[in-house]
Amino acid sequence: MHPADLLLVLVILMNFLALGASGMRVCIRAAALQGAVLSILPLLVHREPGWNALLMAVGAAALKGVLIPGLLLKAMRDVHVSHEVEPYVGFVPSLFLGAIGTALALLFAGGLPLAGEHVGTLIVPASLATLFSGFLLMTTRRKAIMQVVGYLLLENGVFVFGLLLIEAMPFLVEVGVLLDLLVAIFIMGIVLNHIRREFSSLDTEHLADLKE
Amino acid sequence: MTLALILVPLGAAAFAFVIPSDRVRPLVLPAAALTHLLLTGVALAGLVPVAHGAWLQLDSLGGVTLGLVSVLFAICALYAPGYLRVRIDRPNRILCACLLVFLSAASLLILSQHLGLMWVAVEATTLATAPLVYFNRNPRSIEATWKYLMIASVGIALALLGSLFLAYSAYLGGGEPSLLFRALLESAGNFSRPWLRAGFVLLLVGYGTKMGLAPLHTWKPDVYGEAPGMVGALLAGGLTSCAFLALLRVYRIVNAAGEGAFARRLLVALGLLSMAVAAVLMVRQRDFKRMLAYSSVEHMGILVLGVGIGGAGLSGSILHTINNGLTKAVLFLAAGNIHRAFRSKNLDDVSGALVRLPLSGGLFLAGFFAITGSPPFGPFVSMFAILNAAIASDRWIVAFLYLALLALVFLGMGATVLAVVQGRPSRESLESPYQDNIRKTGPILVSMALVLLLGLWIPEPLRKLIAGAAAGFTVEP
Description:
The structure holds two protein chains of two kinds.
Chain A: H1 3-20, H2 24-45, H3 51-78, H4 91-110, H5 123-140, H6 144-162, H7 170-199
Helix pairs in contact in A: 1-2, 1-4, 1-5, 2-3, 2-6, 3-7, 4-5, 5-6, 6-7
Chain B: H1 2-18, H2 28-45, H3 60-86, H4 93-111, H5 115-133, H6 139-172, H7 181-187, H8 193-211, H9 219-226, H10 229-282, H11 288-309, H12 312-342, H13 353-356, H14 358-371, H15 378-392, H16 396-421, H17 427-431, H18 438-456, H19 460-471
């Protein structure tokens, strides 16, 4: 078994933790832990990790594991609302859907050709499963913070896939993933702040005036 | 030269940001826009084939979009000072700076000859436009901004994943790892097909979200409904055309790899679906700005449908980006004026725009006829070219659905537009201080004149440019 696979299993488990948790803190921490675990992966996948791989790992760990979850936790502290997730789709159905998504990811990944060094690793299924879990969180959770957590998972999924290309095309992977995350979360943070000021809450139920 | 197209608007944005006066600041917009237009003209005059290893260079395909975006931005920038004078109660520092950053990011997107760099630019356009939607600072506009950010971010994340899939497909194909379009096109024949197909689907969904193709259009009515008319014009005419360009660049690679038929089937399906969704949702639309959003969904559908039909349909689509973009400027800017005069964009309060604002109301009506494909305006020519291509390739069902949906849209949109322009204006609207003047209607007239001109006569350089852009898609056997 490839050493990276152990960590990838952990990544998949974090998806289930985020899908099944009823407290927002747990969800944010699950996303944080997943991000931190992911950032180590480039070092394991690289055959000869250089300084830029190390820099990437440290940067990603700081961003995904500490900075962004910290911002989300702070946003939660600042606005005094219930810390319940309040899903549109219950926790058990969410977990069930997550399990189906993971199974489908394994099946789908089995049908795709891989380069020699990637055969037998969990990179593709873990990536697709994480992506799917992120989607599920974004669409079935009511709080704006939870939608951001869903987006984090989605990004983590893309990041895992980037491992396949980290040696061949480091530019695309590094710039893409970090820029996407940093700026998108930054802007989302600003908007979250405005939502809070406008509605004194982070419940997206308030954001339902615009309808057909 | 190429860099100046990106750096001039960026520098102007920084300059606009430090100007303290809300009255003086909007004047930076026309100055920067006209400089950009000049630079665009020079760049278009000196088109050369893309060099080996160039990351930033203008090609014919990008040239069409650059020309459109530059002209469109100039029209909106000339309109802006008059509009912002009416809205002097709102600080416009962020609006002006973000408009210019958008122009810079759009230029970067158009000039990018690298898959990754192009993606970065698409991301930059999203981030630059989000604050524009939030200009009015009310609960409705923040809702629209939040939806826009969430949906567009997911789309962009999927586009990144699609780009990674495409890159992996190229990596499996062997050869030197490069993501420059030229290198990708040259080695496309060896790509791993399953990854390429999956990558194209993801990129279609990702950039399709930016374009606002159904069923990924849900942000559009909210954003176009809440953003100022000027911003709506730039989004519906410029940003969507840039996203379409990104999709075309990807399609070109997939086509060169021999998977063109697969891609075209998807494009035809998504195109017809977008037209159908727009036609259904446009019927009895009470909000005339949201109606324009559905019109945009429809025309994005027409664009990808043309590409899906292929042949003359492709050049029809490329021409249609220009026609659609300029007509959208007419519609959104005129709608913005009507919105200001009536202080509402709902049919409950708005009627008799032709009496209250003869010029803006008349332009809104003319824009409606143009966008629904009535001769002698530009969109008629390009929409007819797409129909012809469908018939020429014996796709009778596609041609029939296309015509039927166009007719449906004409009826649905017509009902709303006529309700806006006809009848008698309410007393409140007659008492509102807003008046049309040359600064607020002149740019719309220019845009309308261009739409009419393109319907009657396509200048030779433009014809050559479009032919050159379409020729890039032919695959040598």
